[in-house]
Amino acid sequence: MNEIDVPLFHFNRGQFIEADYQDPLLEVYRNNPLLEALPPIWDDKTVAKNLAHNPSFKISERELPVHLRMHCVQRISREFFRPLSRHLELQQSLSRLIRDGYVGRNPLTPNYAFRARKDAYELILKGNTSGYPVNTPTSAGFALVGISGIGKSSSLMRILQMYPQVILHGKYKGQDMPAPYQIVWLKMDCPHDGSIRGLCLNFLLAVDSLVGTKYYKKNTTKTTDELLPIMAQAAAVHCLGVLVIDEIQNLQEAKDDRAAQMLNFFVQLVNTIGLPVILVGTYKALPALNGEFRNARRNSGQGDATWHPFQKDEEWEWLLQGLWKYQWTDKKGELTPEFINVMFEESQGISDIAIKLFMLTQWRALDKEIEQITPEMVRSVARDRFTLIKPALEALRSGKKQQIQKFADIYDSVSVDDYVDRIEAERRKAERLEVIKTELGYDLKEQTIAEIHGWLIEAGIEEASALKAAQAVALKHLDELDSVDVHKEALKIALHEQNESTASKPRPRSKAKAKLLPTEPSDLRVIVSQGKKQKLAAYESLKVAGYIKNPLEFIG
What we know:
Elements: E1 16-18, H1 33-36, H2 44-51, H3 66-79, H4 85-103, H5 110-115, H6 120-126, E2 141-146, H7 152-160, E3 166-168, E4 171-172, E5 175-176, E6 181-183, E7 185-189, H8 196-211, H9 215-219, H10 224-237, E8 242-246, H11 258-273, E9 277-281, H12 292-300, E10 305-307, H13 314-323, H14 337-347, H15 351-367, H16 375-385, H17 390-398, H18 401-404, H19 420-458, H20 463-477, H21 486-504, H22 524-533, H23 538-544
Parallel strand pairs: 1-3, 2-9, 2-10, 7-8, 8-9
Antiparallel strand pairs: 3-6, 4-5
Helix pairs in contact: 2-19, 3-15, 4-7, 6-11, 8-10, 10-11, 14-15, 14-16, 15-16, 19-20, 20-21, 22-23
């Protein structure tokens, strides 16, 4: 136990979902319970909508004491996620990889029964399959490589979590399933010393935590050579869809030829049980990723993914637009071209650094009791707080290869061959960004209209006037929802609309003089009347409308 660094896992049946077999719509995926139990194949719009996540935020929180607002800012790092074109591309690659890997591993075929044997690993390596139809795997996997802080691991984890991790199977078309548990994905870190034995034991412990087996306890004393077939068998028996190994740059620290041995082992996992493998790491991992595993990945057709720092382009501005809504300072600083430039210069397009810089700047403004953040404050915070990474950022800023080479984690040493796919990727990037903007923007607009419309109806506004006012306000203030009182603006428009509509109608003749009702939104009677419909006292209605001030504001 002491010679390896293993995390603690706890078996939890609550993480299971029961199989719900659906038509996968493609013939090659039909009649395979592993594929029919997966979620549908999503389009980019659905992925963008499901990945997007915004921190909880209320304008009223800006009135909280400073020590509480400090905690509010922390939500950004925990909850903010803005889907970008690279995330949609990664999800599509993962979707194809998992499904393609399952094509040749139907648990209802003799192929599965053979691979689930304890000696299958060694027999396949020796070429002795005893007549069993062991299909040649088509999906080897791919590598996801990029600078530290660019969001590789966190993005991949969000995408993996769109899929159930464990599916529980019962009967499929009246037939008992030989494999009750299907582990769709498993993500692990590469051991810090590149130990294959450590990797195997961590894998067995993780499987135990997911399906309640006792692989780890039974095999802690076994050697590496003994553990390899056990790991392969566990992956085959429980129908593992994809194995993700993060921090693969740790192989650079491995002694002797352990890096080559581990990569060769991944190739063997692909060849023996058809298990796709995704390797994730920084640019330090590139030398280790060459060779046989690189050739296997090329043959899979998925293509490796290299995540570079963002450019100062439309996608960078889209990321900041989403981030900029979440400000807990007294006043919101608008996202100006100067802010866009300074955020890029001080982070060099590394998203994690940009998000941390945004948070740190807010914390400083709150601590110093400054009303709002400014570009100068961003520069000051970066100068004071980013001292450890300043040399690396300076190297990126210089654009000089010799300077960048000093920092292995930010040095892009990808060969020319790897840039072939980037040309197509750049084209797809623009297309996907439009999809994201359309889907998320449309969704926000429709939600805003529905919410304002409902509020106006409850306040007693006629249907037609309420809808027209809600649409007008949403169109005008969609980018200012956290700084504009949209209800008040909509009420003004609705009352004016109703007034115009009433004035244009012919008035019925009457001997009695009609009672004139107030219609101006600034009329105190209108404010009190609308407040009553919202179950507010007259005092509270006038206070919300800004006619009653806090007495403390007049002191001093």
